[in-house]
Specification:
- The structure holds 2 protein chains of 2 kinds.
- By secondary structure, chain A is an alpha/beta fold.
- Helices cover 33% and strands 14% of the residues of chain A.
- Chain A has a 7-stranded mixed sheet with strand order 4-3-2-1-5-6-7.
- The model of chain B has no long low-confidence stretch (mean pLDDT 97).
- By secondary structure, chain B is α/β, with parallel strands linked by helices.
- In chain B, a hairpin with a 5-residue loop joins strand 1 and strand 2.
- The radius of gyration of chain B is 21 Å and the shape is globular.
- Classes of the chains: A alpha/beta, B alpha/beta.
- Chains A and B meet through helix 4, helix 7 and helix 8 of A and helix 2, helix 3, helix 5, helix 10 and helix 11 of B.
């Protein structure tokens, strides 16, 4: 996984609540057995018409948002299916950070596994960032994970909260399976205890 | 005296392997269910890192999302779907995981076959790369959906890194009205608390109405916890639960079963256990429900009318309603019963168990699907299908003009050939009415199996109570 330390980039506004993972990546693209190559299908049904032509009114089809690294969304972002294809598609498009008032739990977790930082901020703050993002070409936002801040050029840095362990893994690009495998003796011990207390689980 | 604990607290605490600084936990996973869509990259990750599956016998795999529901004996026509299914088969063979093949009678939707095989038991931790894993919570198991990276993590370590959720309890007291089903109850709950109402929480469903439900009904309730934002739903195990499990292939065998039941009986939340949030709902106030929009929270009693976005004060919500009505091709003020439909789908991990099919058949019996409506019934598993056929339900459906299909996820998410065309409107017993969910441009109205049959035979959204 790629590290996430500090990111400066164009922020794309997507003022829709309850953006679900079916919107982010429709099911016809879940037939892949790879993690890569999904960027061109990100938001497919909103981004292209039924003939595969770009819809000019969709934000990611407009300059400068075609190069967006940050997405600003509405409440309950990423609800629905557990498909990790959603963060894979965002990442493949080039988006490394999503800012929204709230996130669905599974999507939130899946982002961290893929080097994407989801940031939950109060609704009014997100609305301010959304308005700033709409201003177009100069709408570069900087996200600093170490300092836990988001800054636009005219505003003082906005502080955000992030779980300490998730932050540590993201900052260092760590594979958490490797970390858990270091706990193998504890897992062995747990299993030995469970074999005694609930032998039917081991029959 | 020890602090009173919730059902969730008990399962959580009994599965802790390690607690790190900051409260992040390594949680042991008892059961892992795997399907073809969210697992190939996980197995690929194991191979790339040279890792093995820690406990292959704790994992069971089945293909359900991509499988065709007709002409299965001829194989899978779509090359991408076929590759995904063959990849699962090959991965299971390589890593020593039990796999129910497409032509095995035990094959079916992963959340239907887990309970059916006795793989789902109270007090367990159960995960699957699928958000509707919450279904298994009906047995008093902590069950939740995970992403593919977490699938890989479980395969490699038999654990997950998690933080504890908050406790929420939804109590439904009283008796359900005539023609009202568990599906109506869960839709009403989602309408009440909203699609993010349970975010960060595990929801325990309690109260006399919930206790009165069969396991099938309880599974329908827990299944849609995710549509209320909660990763997991829970219902306290009781005699109904134990009776359902007893004798199933993977259930504890005689002797061990009694030992297991003794432990399972200690699981229900203690009196006085603290919940972070409590919601109370009167069963008697719930009418048959249908959704009108593109979020499961866009739900109303069938007696209602399409709402007017201009009456909504919240700007974001108003825009979402306008977008939903445009997508759904509906106008404010239209009576829901006047909305004509083109298709009917009875199936999915929400409503494709034997009781669902019995209830649907009872309404379909002696009636005909309205002209111009295509209607299909997709049983949740090969065993459900066989059971339904032994009861003659297939004949009832076929005589009424429904198609009788082979088991799989089918038109719930339309990854196989079963899907809506743009603009087609469907009465569906599934769980999501998102834009494009059942096919690009398709319009989904969620409801119970009985209500879906009522829509099929009348050709429009209808109140099943008038047909019973």
């Amino acid at each position: 996984m790629e590290k996430f330390t500090r990111l400066t980039g164009i922020a794309a506004p997507l003022a829709i609540i309850n953006v679900d993972t079916d919107m982010i990546i429709p099911k016809q693209f879940l037939k892949t057995i790879k993690r890569t190559g999904l960027g061109k299908h990100l938001f497919d049904e909103m981004r292209y018409d039924e003939h595969g032509k770009e819809r000019p009114d969709f934000v990611l089809n407009q300059d400068p948002y075609r190069k967006a690294k940050i997405l600003i969304g509405g409440e309950n972002f990423g609800c629905g299916s557990s498909r990790e294809h959603a963060p894979w598609a965002l990442l493949d498009f080039g988006i490394r950070c999503v800012i929204a008032p709230s996130f669905a739990d599974i999507f939130y977790n899946n982002c961290f596994k893929n080097g994407i930082l989801p940031i939950a901020l109060p609704k009014e703050t997100v609305e301010k960032l959304m308005a700033f993002a709409r201003s177009g070409g100069n709408a570069a936002v900087t996200v600093d994970l170490e300092a836990q801040t988001v800054s636009g050029p005219d505003e003082k840095p906005i502080r955000f909260e992030v779980d300490r362990f998730l932050k540590y893994c993201l900052l260092n690009g760590l594979d958490d399976i490797g970390l858990t495998l270091e706990k193998e003796p504890q897992v062995d011990a747990f299993e030995e205890r469970q074999k005694l207390s609930q032998p039917w689980l081991w029959a | 005296m020890a602090q009173p604990r919730t059902l969730f607290d008990k399962i959580w605490q009994s599965h802790l392997v390690h607690v790190q600084d900051g409260g992040t936990c390594v949680l042991y996973i008892d059961r892992h269910l795997v399907h073809e869509v969210t697992s190939p990259q996980a197995f690929e990750g194991l191979r790339a890192a040279g890792r093995r599956v820690r406990r292959p016998e704790a994992t069971i795999a089945v293909a359900d999302h991509n499988v065709p529901t007709v002409g299965r004996a001829q194989g899978v026509a779509d090359p991408e779907s076929r590759i995904q299914i063959e990849t699962l088969e090959a991965n299971c063979a390589e890593f020593g995981i039990t796999y129910f093949s497409m032509n095995d009678v035990r094959q079916g939707i992963v959340h239907i076959i887990g309970p059916e095989q006795g793989l789902t038991q109270p007090g367990m931790t159960i995960v699957c790369g699928d958000s509707h894993t919450s279904t298994h919570g009906a047995f008093g198991a902590l069950a939740f959906g995970i992403g593919t990276s977490e699938v890989e993590h479980v395969l490699a370590t038999q654990t997950l890194i998690q933080k504890p959720a908050k406790n929420m309890r939804i109590t439904v007291e009283g008796e359900l009205g005539f023609g009202v089903t568990p599906k109506d109850v869960i839709l009403a709950i989602i309408g009440n608390i909203g699609t993010a109402g349970g975010t960060g929480h595990v929801i325990e469903y309690a109260g006399s109405a919930i206790r009165s439900f069969s396991m099938e009904g309880r599974m329908t309730i827990c299944n849609m916890s995710i549509e209320a934002g909660a990763r997991a739903g829970l219902i306290a195990p009781d005699q109904t639960t134990f009776d359902y499990i007893k004798g199933r292939p993977y259930a504890p065998k005689a002797g061990a079963f009694e030992q297991a039941v003794a432990l399972w009986k200690t699981l229900p939340s203690d009196p006085g256990a603290k919940f972070d949030r409590e919601v109370e709902i009167a069963a008697a106030g719930i009418a048959p429900q249908v959704t009108w929009g593109t979020s499961p929270q866009d739900v109303l009693p069938i007696t209602g009318e399409v709402p007017d976005p201009d009456r909504e004060r919240d700007e974001g919500r108003k825009r979402a309603m306008e977008r939903a009505l445009t997508y759904m091709g509906l106008r404010p003020g239209t009576k829901l019963r006047d909305v004509k439909i083109d298709a009917v789908f009875i199936g999915s991990c929400t409503n494709a168990r034997i009781e669902d099919l019995r209830a649907a058949a009872a309404v379909a019996k002696g009636r005909k699907v309205a002209s111009g409506v295509r209607a299909m019934v997709v049983p949740g598993s090969g065993l459900v299908r066989a059971q339904a056929e032994s009861e003659g339900l297939d004949k009832v459906f076929l005589a009424a003009g429904f198609e009788w299909r082979e088991p799989g996820c089918s038109m719930c998410l339309a990854m196989n050939a079963d899907r809506l065309s743009p603009g087609e409107r469907c009465a569906s017993t599934s769980n999501r009415n998102f834009e494009g969910r059942q096919g690009r441009g398709g319009r989904t109205h969620l409801m119970s199996p009985q209500m879906a049959v009522a829509a099929a035979v009348t050709g429009h959204l209808a109140d099943v109570r008038e047909l019973l």
